[in-house]
Amino acid sequence: MDWLQAAKERQDELIQELQELVQINSVLDEKTITADVPFGEGPLKALEWLLAKGKAQGLQTKNVDNYAGHIEMGQGEELLGILCHVDVVPVGDESNWTYPPFSGTIADGKLFARGAIDDKGPTVAAWMAMKLVKDAGIQLNKRVRMIIGTDEETGFRCVDHYFKNEEMPTIGFAPDADFPLINAEKGIAALVLSQKQIGDATKEQLLLFNAGKRSNMVPDFAKATVQFVSSPFEQNFQTFLSKNQLEGSLLMEGSHYIITIKGKAAHAMEPEKGVNAAVYLAAFLQQELTTEGSKQFVDFIVDVFHQDHYGHALALQYEDDMSGQTTLNPGIVTYDATQGGNMVISFRYSVTYPFDDKITEAQRLAADKGFSLDIQENSKPHYVSEDDPLIQTLAGVYRRQTGDNETPLLSTGGGTYARVLKKGVAFGMLFPGDPDVMHRADEYVIVDKLVQAAAIYAEAIAELAGK
Ligand SMILES: [Zn+2]
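# zinc ion complex -> structure
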C-alpha cells in the first residue's frame, strides 16, 4: 500500500478539514464556562465538529460529558489509542500575526493558524489516516480509537476526566510533539523548600525577597528590600552587576534599599538556558548580609543553585543514558522577614531516578542548612523501552516513510500529552529540523508535511492494528 500516494490524493480534503477546524476559536473561555461546558464554548464546538465528522463516516463516536470524546473503528479485544487535542493557546498580540490567527490562510506552502501544528494539524492528519485505513479496506484486529481532549493546554482535566470513565488503550501514540518519537520523559515534581527558623524580624537586614510566579519558568526578575547595610552597598552592587554582565536597579526609600536584578527567562526543563534572577540577587546579597535569618536564606540559595542546575549540594544529581541529567529550577523564590524564606522548585528527574532514597538524603542535607523539603506534586517518569514492539513499529514506519535513518529517538524533560497513556509515546508531527512554532505568532504547518504525516499515521495504524 502506497500510503503517501493515497494521502496526496486527498490533500484537498485534508486542507479543507483543517481550515474548518482552525476557524473554530477553541481557546479556553472562562466567560462561557458552565457546569455542563467545562472549558467554555470554543473547545466544545471543536470537539463537536470532529465527532460529527466521525459520525458522518459511519464510525462510533462518544462525547464524554463535554470534557473529551472519541471516534472508534475496528473490532477486537485490544484498543489502539490515538490521543489528540482540539483546544489551543491564546493568540497573544494579534498585531504580531501576518494572517488572521483563525483563518487557516495558505501561503508559501504553509497553512497559518493558531493550532496549525499544536494540535489541530496533527489531529486532522491522524483523522485522515483513520479514513485512509478504513477506505483501503484494511482488516483490523484491534479497535482504533481517536481520543479527543479539549483541555490539554490548561491542565489535562479533559483526559483526567475521560480516563476516570473510559477504557485505557492497550497501546497508543499522541501526535502532539516531535518525530521520530519520544519514548523517555523525565519525572516532573514540584519541591517546596521552607526555612524552618526565622530570625528576629525587627533586626533582620533582608525584609522582602520576591522572584518568579511559576515553578516551570526560570525567573527573569528578582527584587529585594534590605536595611542596615554598610555604606559601600551601592558601589558593591554596581560592581557585582558589571562583573556578571547583568542589569539591575537600586533605589533608596527612607532607610531601605530596594534592589532589582534582571535575568533571562527559560523553560524549567532547560534551566541552563536561562539566567535565574533570584540566584544572582542572592549571590550579591550573600556578600552584604550578616543577620541570622537573612544570611541563612541567601547562603542556602547560593549553595544549592548558584552555577549548578543539578542539585549537587543536596545530593540530588543523577543521570541516565535514556533521559539525561536530573535538573532543578527554583522558579518561585520568596522571603519575608516575619515568615522566612520559601521556594518552589521544578524538579525534572531522570527515568531511572531512585526517587525515595534521593529525596530522603536531600531532606537531611537541607535540614542541616535550616530548610525543610516537601513534595508538592509528583508526575512519574514515562518510558517505553526501545525494544518494545510499539516503539519498533512506530520508528520503522517513520524511517520507511521519510528515509530518515539518522535522527535518534528522543527524550524530553518536558511532559508530553502521551504521559497520560499507560503505554504510549509522543509520535510527531513536527519533523526534525523544522522550526517549532507552537504557541507562537504566525503558527503554521507545512502542507506537504501534513500530507506526509497522514501517510505515516495511516501506516502506523495499519501496522499496529491490522490483521
Ligand atoms: Zn499540544
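# post-check
The mean pLDDT is 96.
DSSP finds eleven helices and 24 strands in the chain.
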